[in-house]
Known about the structure:
Elements lengths: L4 E6 L7 H13 L5 E6 L1 H4 L6 H18 L6 E5 L5 H10 L4 H5 L2 H9 L6 H15 L5 E3 L5 H18 L7 E3 L34 H10 L15 H14 L3 H7 L5 H27 L2 H30 L3
Helix pairs in contact: 3-12, 4-7, 4-13, 7-8, 9-12, 10-12
Amino acid sequence: MSKKRVFSGIQPTGQIHLGNYLGAVKNWVDSQDDYENIFCVVNSHAITTTQNPQELREKTFELAGMLLACGIDVKKSNLFIQSEIDEHPALSWILDCNISMGEMNRMTQFKDKSLKNSKNVNVGLFNYPALMAADILLYQTDGVPVGEDQKQHLELARNVAIKFNRDFGECFKIPEPMIPKVGARVMGLDDPDTKMSKSAKGANHAIFLLDTPEEILRKIKKAATDSQTAIVFDENRAGLYNLLSIYQIFTHQSKDEIEKDFEGKGYGEFKIALADVVIEALRPIRQEYVRLNAEKGYIAKILAEGADKVRPIARETYQKAKELIGLI
Ligand code: TYM
């Protein structure tokens, strides 16, 4: 039996942080053997917010290098740059014409992002979910491994695919979201009520994968908690719950085991243990990133090969959609 296909993407904006890693990238890496994998650096999505062209180009390759450093194995997975396959924006247009303003207007990320980027609220930002739906639907995707914040966008992708298939004939596979049980929404260390994000301003908000051990220790020591003392999983204690969840993912221990280990111990001891675990998990990634980044030609070659491999799938789906809708 052939393997199911997964597709996912990540934007080359800012540095990749622990939320991106635990919510998405680590799961891509860990399940590479189980699926046929397509991963994409979504640089066309990145231009929905203001970017410096040269920096965007650099960040695109750097992010690809980071994904390889995290363990994306090109023998098992295809990795490519979104803008290298013209069918993405082309299909996005067809989907635009099949999504109602009402449905698009309900997207909460557009509301959040337009508040944060009030000087550049462009039509691309509004249409962002249609391009994301095109990314997924072009590859006849079975599953989409993402963090929880992408749930609404995925619902839209499913809805437009169902509508298109019904109105014009069978064209797209209906993709299933794959959202992890733990790590789907890693919160900011300085403010556990907001999602960890690349754009937040606070110096102690996010742990980036390229942070040094000293920076990781400092940020975890400063992480916001509460005035209680017991180290237990309690969702009402958002700061501690977030830290414990991170600890749980890296140690693969059960909640009970972790609570037992820290019985009678305080925040100080727990935070040092957590910092150790995070530092050791990120150390090999950082080392591999530095090594790979010195081989820019190698990364470019991998990305070109990745695009060449998946382009025929995108072409076939796009041709079918065009024909069904009467565009030729
Ligand atoms: P992006 O670049 O914002 O984030 C990449 C992935 O990281 C996840 N993520 C988080 N998970 C847990 N906790 C957090 N604090 C956290 N922050 C981010 C995101 O859920 C995502 O999985 N729209 C997408 C990119 C995209 C895409 C696609 C994804 C474009 N086309 C097609 C899947 C399929 C985005 O902005 O991701």
